[in-house]
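Bench notes, afternoon.
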Amino acid sequence: MDVLKTEALTKVYGKGQNQVTALDKAEISISEGSFVAIVGTSGSGKSTLLHMMGGLDRPTSGKVYVENKDIFSLKDEELTIFRRRKIGFVFQSFNLVPTLNVYENIVFPIQLDGNDVDEKFVGEVIKTLGLEDMKNRLPNQLSGGQQQRVAIARALASKPAIVLADEPTGNLDSKTSQDVLGLLKVTGQKFSQTIVMITHNEAIAQMADRIIRIEDGHIVKGGAEND
């Protein structure tokens, strides 16, 4: 089953001579439980694509379906709620709340949504990511790699339909990057999560089950499962 699908997804910025087409009729389909890397150089449109897929920005035209739901048919408030429940994000900059400890950061989105925390599941995620001894630490007491592991745990904890990772190792050294990506892949498999990762790093992309290539706003390879 396709958990994520785009149809003729287009994003245009500016008008007239200043008009830039960041995304041009992009079509991709991603099956449930897969680990997909979207690869492109700077300015290729990969981050724009991720923002559209995650409902962070609305397209000029085209559609995005998450679990067969046309997410842009939702009003802004409905989309915010849907995004919080169905899509987990891992960003390059970690985005942890500095005044909350590791455990509080992980469960914060769940509590924000007014839901009960599945303590057993969250405990498994924390254990798998090697964060058991750090639960009471504040973000400034962690290394960059540890902070990114917390960000991954937070994205997984609410059991989203899909996890979107935007250059998740961009602020990490090469060894830490490999370690973090290895953990992301292992946790994705263990908890049957669908993971879509944006990267410009070919070596990191090779860790994925499938690679989608984007150039100048066009999907040039891998948009469909068997491309």
